[in-house]
């Protein structure tokens, strides 16, 4: 069962039909119990003319595959789809060894960031953690650690689809569009461990953007409760991804997303600061202040939280455009801790505007970058081809 399409022989209408046929073939191979493989021959590439990759459950990322395969065919690539090897069950003892990404040889260019075993496990765990099937996720994903943002999302999108069962760890809701250009929101809970877990698995879906909207402690004199913070960089004190990405590697938000968030903030004439966010894994860092305060001062941090740097770091690792918009809920250095009654008033006044700004940013991405935010400049020479929107070089 092999399907081969030479893009040089196609016009635009033929390309659309060819993409459909190739993706249908991928799903048929998967349904037969095999990992499907894709082989791409790129006549324009001097150094890497032939690239291959294996996949699992291609239906879950079909819209992404359609976009990438279509772009390759339009440039004149030849794309072949065929069975690779029998798929492993999730309870197969061999799966554990196959999940280890530490031995991947990055010297050879690959087609995709993940092996099929990793894809299969992540897609299954997304359903487990969020209570919704992985194929419900849309191209734009908002992360929050408050149920109130999810409630506002449901008010904004009454037709949003949510968990199929109660009590899931990180419930997700999806405003679905036929082309996947809707928005998904996930309440990830508190802490960098959850932030890493969800982004590890969301990454296989190749979303066009991830936005973190949450609360933070304001660290500057001239901040007030309810002011926004637009992150321009991160101090990584979350201690959760250091082994795979040293803290010496710079991690910054996507500048295009930040520009759209900045424009949305300025249109509202709301108070905000731009600057470094200090992300800690210690919810009670105030009880062990010395090292944290020193790092905050040296980095000129304007806010402290527990998730933003983790999401940004995994976004960097997996080449997913991301940004952070926080709202000041307390000022730990200035005698304004987060107290119950004041917190409730703050939540009521800030939650709608917070989500509205994020949705304005996403609408801007749809209009300016309907095929995904260009970020091929973040791809190293030895990294996979399928891994960022419009990566066809």
CATH class of the largest domain: Alpha Beta
In the predicted model, the low-confidence regions spanning at least 5 consecutive residues are 388-393
Q: Percent helix among the residues?
A: 25-40%
Total discrete domains? 2
* Radius of gyration over all CA atoms, rounded: 22 Å
Per CATH, the architecture of the largest domain is 3-Layer(aba) Sandwich
Q: Give the count of helical stretches.
A: 10
The CATH superfamily of the largest domain is identified as Nucleoside phosphorylase domain
Q: Count every beta strand, where a strand is a DSSP E run of 2 or more residues.
A: 12
What structural class do the secondary elements suggest?
A: alpha/beta
Kindly report the CATH topology of the largest domain: Rossmann fold
Outline? globular
How far the N terminus sits from the C terminus, by CA atoms, comes to 28 Å
Widest beta sheet: strand line-up: 8-11-10-9-12
Approximately what portion of the residues adopt beta-strand conformation? Answer: 15-25%
Average pLDDT across residues? Answer: 89
* N-to-C SSE string, H for helix and E for strand: EHEEHEHHEHEEHEEHEHEHEH
> How does the major sheet shape up?
5 strands, mixed, barrel
Characteristic key phrases:
alpha/beta; Ribulose 1,5 Bisphosphate Carboxylase/Oxygenase; 2 domains; five-stranded mixed barrel; 12 strands; 35% helix; disordered C terminus
Structure description:
With 393 residues, this protein is an alpha/beta fold. The chain folds into two domains: 3-87, Ribulose 1,5 Bisphosphate Carboxylase/Oxygenase, CATH 3.30.190; 129-372, Nucleoside phosphorylase domain (Rossmann fold, 3-Layer(aba) Sandwich), CATH 3.40.50. The protein contains ten helices and twelve strands. The model is unreliable at 388-393 (pLDDT under 50). The strands form two sheets. Strands 8-11-10-9-12 form a five-stranded mixed beta barrel, surrounded by four helices. The protein has a four-stranded antiparallel sheet with strand order 1-4-2-3, covered by helices on one side. It has helices at residues 12-31, 62-74, 94-98, 116-130, 147-156, 192-202, 255-267, 289-299, 308-317, 340-368, and strands spanning 3-6, 34-41, 50-54, 78-86, 140-144, 172-175, 183-187, 209-218, 228-237, 272-280, 303-305, 322-330. α1 (12-31) packs across α2 and α7 packs across α10.
């Amino acid at each position: 069962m092999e399907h081969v399409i030479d893009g040089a022989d196609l016009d635009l209408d033929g390309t659309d039909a060819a993409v459909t046929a190739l993706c249908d073939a991928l799903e048929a191979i998967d349904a037969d119990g095999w990992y499907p493989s894709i082989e791409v021959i790129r006549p324009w590439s001097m150094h890497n003319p032939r690239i291959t990759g294996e996949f699992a459950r291609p239906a879950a990322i079909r819209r992404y595959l359609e976009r990438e395969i279509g772009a390759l065919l339009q440039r004149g690539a030849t794309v072949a789809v065929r069975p690779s090897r029998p798929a492993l069950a999730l309870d197969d003892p061999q799966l554990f060894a196959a999940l280890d990404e530490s031995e991947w040889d990055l010297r050879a260019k690959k087609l995709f960031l993940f092996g099929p075993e990793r894809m299969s496990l992540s897609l299954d765990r997304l359903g487990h953690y969020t209570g919704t099937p992985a194929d419900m996720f849309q191209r734009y994903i908002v992360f929050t650690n408050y149920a109130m943002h999810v409630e506002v999302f449901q008010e904004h999108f009454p037709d949003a689809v949510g968990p199929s069962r109660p009590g899931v760890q990180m419930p997700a809701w999806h405003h679905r569009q036929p082309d996947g250009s809707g928005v998904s929101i996930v309440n990830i809970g508190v802490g960098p461990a959850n932030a890493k877990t969800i982004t590890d698995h969301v990454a296989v879906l190749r979303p066009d953007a991830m936005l973190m909207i949450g609360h933070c402690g304001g660290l500057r004199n001239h901040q007030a409760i309810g002011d926004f913070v637009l992150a321009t960089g991160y101090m990584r004190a979350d201690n959760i991804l250091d082994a795979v990405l040293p803290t010496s590697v710079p991690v910054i938000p996507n500048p295009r997303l930040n520009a759209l968030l900045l424009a949305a903030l300025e249109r509202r004439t709301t108070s905000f600061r731009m600057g470094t966010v200090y992300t800690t894994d210690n919810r009670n860092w105030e009880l062990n202040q010395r090292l944290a305060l020193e790092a905050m001062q040296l980095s000129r941090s304007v806010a402290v939280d527990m998730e933003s740097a983790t999401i940004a770091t995994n976004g960097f690792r997996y080449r997913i455009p991301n940004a952070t918009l926080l709202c000041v809920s307390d000022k730990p250095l200035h005698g304004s801790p987060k107290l119950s009654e004041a917190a409730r008033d703050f939540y009521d006044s800030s939650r709608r505007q917070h989500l509205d700004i994020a949705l304005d940013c996403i609408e801007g991405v749809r209009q300016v970058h309907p095929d995904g935010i260009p970020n091929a400049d973040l791809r190293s020479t030895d990294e996979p081809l399928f891994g960022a929107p419009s990566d066809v070089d």
